Fold each of these.
Amino acid sequence: MTDDSSRRAGARADRAVSITVNYVIVLGITAVLISGLLVGAGGYVQEQRESVVREELSVVAEQVAAGIDDADRLAAAYPRNRSVRVGVDLPGRVAGESYRIQVTELTAPTNQPARHELTLRSAGTRVSVTLTVSTSVDLDERSVNGGWVVVRLDGGELVVATGDSSRTLALADPAAGGYTHD
Amino acid sequence: MADVSRCQGRDAAGGSECRRRAAPRGRRDCSAHAGGSRDRGQLLLVGALALAVLFVALALLLNTAIYTGTLATRDAGGDATPAIEYVSASRSAGADAIRSVNRRNDTSTTDLRRAFVATTGRWDDLASHHRAVVGDAADVSVATVTNGTRIQQDDAGRNFTSNTTASDWTVVEGSGVVAVRSMRFTVDNSTLTSIDDAGNATAETVFHVVVDSTTGTTRTAYIYHNTSSGNAEVLVDDGGTETACPVGSVTDGTFVVDVSNASLGGASCRELGTLDDAEGDVSVEYGDGTAAGGTYTMVVEGHPTDGGVTLSELNPSGSPYWTDAIYSANLTVTYRTEELDYEATVEVVPE
């Protein structure tokens, strides 16, 4: 009994020390591990977010280019008194961020089609994607927000503009011909 | 958690500190241990929650990535191809309508115009129904019609002289004659002058057509039979350069000199196509009309009622004669889809 009592007393003294140390170590290690995990996972998520934004902007840029290409083809096909409007339904946000489409002119060699850069930049992550388009009809330099975008022919050059909020082309009355038939 | 189990373990052994000492103190110790374990659990909980949020964010990103994939496979914007095809089809239908109307109606320019508008309208009704099936709205309407004059000789046994059998004569001239199209001769091979050298064509009595314009070059086409080659030939003089083209084939003793199609008896003759590339005040003259025979037809832009068109050497009926015709027309073509609004004015000039 005596040995047991002294052993218990000794153990209790050790235990008091070990509990504190144990606490500190366990809390410390846990905090380090969890914060490390959070920082790592947070960084990974951010990286993935940028990658997803870049990917989506590339797709959106291709769609804008396709819209410009369609409008250019129509404008160049019958170059007399034509009116061209091509609507491109782009997503309003990419990975939760708004973005802007910027058209910048590049110098093209003489007698070559006009070359322009389409730069799409997201508002939050500042990821930007650039695409070069060649058009036979000149393209106006300007920037618009993503979403419903309309490429129209205005004064002999194509203009990329923000579309109507109804996300449809607001149609004008059909042009009345000089003659009517029964 | 380790502390709680240790406390409970000692209680079970019967020698625990909690039991031997005052019960309230032991309970305090145990509750203190239990409180500490709750704190530690909270740390894990917060960490787990934060991780859960990150996983949710990751899942949302995955969702966006999948959506991007879907977006990439979608059609971007309105497709321009149907619109361009429709305009092209309208143009071709308009050209056919002009040809048909010119062939069937020659009473007056008003009748021609009415017939052309009606024909185009009927085509538009049918074609727009076809486009409506795919949800596209299309329309063709006649914007303007340009009057013309068709000049023709139907009598295949006649030579290319005027109504008064003048050999060198002016077919059409005047300030109102702006252009000429659809020039075709069906020439009787046996009526042609035979020469032995293409270089002599300009000097000999060879039938020739002169298309003169105030703003362009005077171009002349000589039609003759070359005894050296044994074939009929056309020598085109574009105001400096002379090019001879042999005839492709002679059928039943005749061959066709098709200026619009730049062909001679079916064989290509590129230089011949330049003959009617004249703008401004255009005049068409025949020289040595006795040196060739057959039929011919052409349409000039301009009409006697509009002024400035002289057709004095043609008959009102009987060869050679002139009739009212439509030279060309402008069509307004509209094509609309959900994502496309296209309108263009196309000029229709049959060849």
Amino acid sequence: MTVDIEARALAIVGVNDIEILQERILQELCEHCGAQSGALWVAGERSGLRLRAWRGLIDRTALPDVVDPALVQASPWLAGASFLVPLVTSTNEVQGLVQLGDSLNGAFSDTLVSPAQRFGAFAASSLKTAARFALLQRQGLRDRETGAYTLSYFTDYATKEIYKARRYGRSFSLLTFSIDNLSGIRTRLGPAAARQAQQVVLKVISQMTRDADVVARAGEHEFHVLLPETDFFGGLMFLRRALASLGDDPDGRALEARLPFGLTGGCATFPRDGDDFDELLMRCRRRMEERRGSLHHQLHLDPLPFWEEVELLLGNARSPRLPDTAGEPARRGKVADVLFDELQLEVARELLREPGARGLVYVGGPLIRSDLNIVRGLDVPANDFAPRVYVLGKRADLVTHPTVTPVFLEGDEHLARHEFLLWLGDGLAYALLQRRGRGATWGFHTSDPTLVEGLVSKLQAAYDLQPY
Amino acid sequence: MAQARKILIADPDVNAVRPLTRALRQRGYHVQYAPDGSRALEVAVLRHPDVILFDENCRLIEARAFGQILLTNPRTDDIPVVVTTSSRELDKFRHFRDGALQKPFNLDEVLSRIDHLCRRVEAARELKGDAREIEGGLSQLPLPDLLQILAMNRRTGRLTVSNGTDKGEIHLTNGAPVNARLGEIEGEKALFRLVGWREGTFAFSPGPPSLRAPIQRMMEDVLLEGMRQSDERDRLLSSLPPLGQLIQLTADATDPVEPHPVTAEVLQFLRVPRRISEVLDLTNAPDLEALSAIGALLAKGHIEKVAGAELTDGPLLGAAEVHALRGRLMRGRSARTTLVTKVVVCGSGSRAGRWLLKALPGLTPASAEPHAVRSSFGTLGRLEVSEVLRVDLLVVPTAEAARPLWRPFVSGAIGALLLEETDAAVRLARYCAFELRLPLVIAAKSASHGMVSAEVVPAPLRGAPMGAAIVSTDISSVLRTVLLAALQSPPPEVPETVVSRFLGLA
């Protein structure tokens, strides 16, 4: 057994890739100790030991994400049916902790303690070396002009992220940002201004990223961002904030004062939008193109406040036809009286099919009644209901609700005449705006994501509602 | 009476929080105030508030440290901490479990957020074990006796009752039953059905009173009536066909003149053939009245049994297939025991929808008269493929004016069914198959009641990325084909330019 564990230790010492190393440590220990399940927590840049790998018959939901290093003992120990192996270096630095369970032999024997401790020391040193190696690799792979990672590093990182996400059933989001009019800036204002535009964009994006997020320069005017463990909605929120922050940035404003300068972004999420990097990137680019062709840009809706935009979109029977767009459609005209009610019911059903998926729904109308279909349809316990649902209007008989947030607006004239439903979800967007009249209801509806996001942002600003 | 909820507001600017404090007090909350992090920590440990709003400008202890200190103390680790900030960079608070609120905020929204957090905390405390006060078997302690004990002690909380896979609950407020649920059924109807249970287990958990109170009678009244109905129901059932029997309107029956409302309701639901159990679930009337109406209608020849339609249908998918499909659907989703997915129906509600409701065994309508049948938009019904997998059938309108509804409602579906041959239905099917890359199955000939006569895949649907198949045996086979097709991974999407280059067209 002694020879065996040393051979296993030597096998992991040469592994520099930290992701592979983590898997190997767990695999070798599980095999050596006859464990059918195992989990590994590793020290990182943040405090505590973070869950990094697991295998076998483990119930992921029962594992804590973070373990306090103070709870880790100096040598392996048995706790109930589990065998815990600390990964401690010769200088007593706790680099990780392995939990083994479901012994093939019924229970873990005391004879495993000594070899596991020796393996733990090897594993700890290997982890430390691999972490340093990864740091050096990152430092050596940055673009000189902007400080962002290079595309080759990013592609490599994204490929590993896909492997991890697939193995552990997680999602991640890939975002692509493109600087509009960069060639115009270069021609008219010179290369220094073009470089400044790139740096402003990178600064804005970098201010919002977490430690685990990776930003790379993909080309002259394009940046990619990878957000691990982020769903589509999280990616979308990042995109919204990045676009808004660029408008607020003083350097960005100064540059824009000299020449029009903007940013367009697209988002795709693993696994729902694709299984490999190329597919995700293509989806990102397609969404970016959809944004460029959106009615929101064609009608120059950006500066309009919420209700002015609603009036413009609704128009009336004499209004000119809406321009054709390449992306998601929009339609204006008479709508069925029952559509608003049926939509509420169907949106509620959609949310309940996947209550863990995030989303935003706003339903506005003259009165907040308890018999609104969205209110009745969502009368469920709030514990695992992730979307945020708001009803806006004059107070009637609804005061509180487990999942719906009533926003009481007394004397709001717009809401007395209009009804709306705005819905942003995981990879989808929809808006219905309508005005009830004598005999007919006039409406506008669209699934154009940029237009719907714009309406949602303006509604939030108009009534001081939270971004999410 | 339930204890008032306690909210701690930590904010250096007392004037800024005054409106919120006032609004919270008006709603019956106890509000505590702390001007800095140190004082907030003291109040949190000593008073154990239900929710803490902590402003990022608090001095002495910053927000992140405050949250971490509370988390490491077992007395305070369950208190939700919401950070309030004037900054737009809410992302820096992403690691806070309970999120952040950006100032200025809408008062109604904050009150609602606090209410939701309090409910979550209360639900979590209820689940922590000590809440399950009484547990046992109904064979030892029948439900009527148990309810009387709870009434005498004026208990408030929830009594859950399980019998095999059926689960019901009765909400009590000060000993009186105010609501009951059994699946989709609510109120007295559910309570009367539960009172008839002789086998199973129960557990009572004290908790806040139910918000809905459709039952207005006292306990004695409800129990007497419930037991009477239960006895009568059993007696009636012995003279009726089994509950799984499919019944329908007799072809040559004349409409009864001004029938009793319950009879009229039963007749309305029998416009399509249904099982007796389904009719009982759908009617608003208590089971006893609905059964009496069915008995009378059968006796008078207004309705009849559907010959050879007893419950003989096998499962749509085998266990291994369900497991594989569930595994595929779980990718990227939060972990849940029961998954609900959907299949898009390309066709009109009045023809395709009605046919599905009539012909697809086990399809439970979304409501007594699903909107989808009338307006061609909405969920038609739900099919329980297994205990862990349910499939909703969704009708999406095919009209050009309704096109903005396509993407939001087709997204997330696992496949599409084409049940009509109209241009509009084929256009929607093409959208599902090519734009959203869903597997498409065309129900032809007898599988669509003749609505589709094609023997080959129509030209606009050929070459669909996930395939387009024709099935003409029966509608169950059509749905099974869709579900099995959903098991495949979609082929990688290749940009058009690459395809053109490959084909030598560039």
